[in-house]
Design a protein that fits this description.
With about 200 residues, the chain is mostly helical. Helices cover about 65% and strands about 0% of the residues. The N and C termini lie far apart (about 145 Å).
């Protein structure tokens, strides 16, 4: 087992988009990058590899079963790899290419992983296919337009403090108080008059 692992080729990992890619952008990117791919194959690749939709969802949208989507993605990825390098192949290599494509989207079954590992140990051509496919995928992802940066949030301007003004109340003297004041004034006036008369008399 250790001997087999020692001879297993290192598996390259392709780049992924750094953020969400809208479907129309993904479709345009694949169409421009892989013009030789069939329309449905290119659409499958755009939705799965760039837009990040799950394979089951994409299969449903395209009216394909699981095997049909697997074949469509493998064909599109072969055309993508051909943008970097053309390679000869055989019937066994076609199956390996499909497994390599499937593995880019998720883990294979133990049985299929074992078959692929055995094939790659004995097929430098498919090792090169995977390496070149990853190289082409990196270029496909790297060519995506940069996502627009979100505008910086403006600092919130605090509301001015609310100043509560005390109600202005003007206390007017009552009528009774006014009469009392007049009465007092009259008493003072009478007292002053009495004092004045007394002073004259004396």
């Amino acid at each position: 087992m250790l001997l087999a692992m020692d001879h297993a080729p290192l598996r390259p990992i392709p780049a992924r988009p750094s953020g969400p890619v809208p479907d129309p952008v993904a479709v345009r990117q694949v169409a421009a990058f892989v013009p030789e791919a069939g329309e449905r194959d290119a659409l499958a690749l755009a939705l799965v590899a760039l837009a990040g939709h799950g394979r089951a969802e994409v299969a449903s949208r395209l009216g394909l079963d699981e095997a049909g989507l697997s074949n469509a993605l493998a064909r599109a990825r072969k055309e993508l790899r051909r943008t970097v390098m053309a390679l000869p192949g055989s019937g066994w290599c076609v199956r390996a290419e499909r497994s390599i494509s499937d593995r880019l989207d998720g883990p294979l079954s133990d049985r299929e992983e074992g078959r692929l590992a055995t094939h790659l140990r004995n097929c430098p051509r498919c090792v090169e296919h995977e390496r070149r496919l990853v190289q082409a995928t990196d270029a496909l992802v790297g060519g995506l337009p940069a996502a627009p940066r979100a505008a910086p949030a403006l600092a919130a301007v605090p509301d001015p403090p609310k100043v509560e003004l005390a109600p202005v109340t003007e206390e007017l003297p009552s009528v009774a108080g006014l009469y009392a004041l007049i009465a007092v004034c009259l008493l003072f006036a009478i007292a002053a008059l009495v004092l004045a008369i007394a002073g004259v008399a004396s």
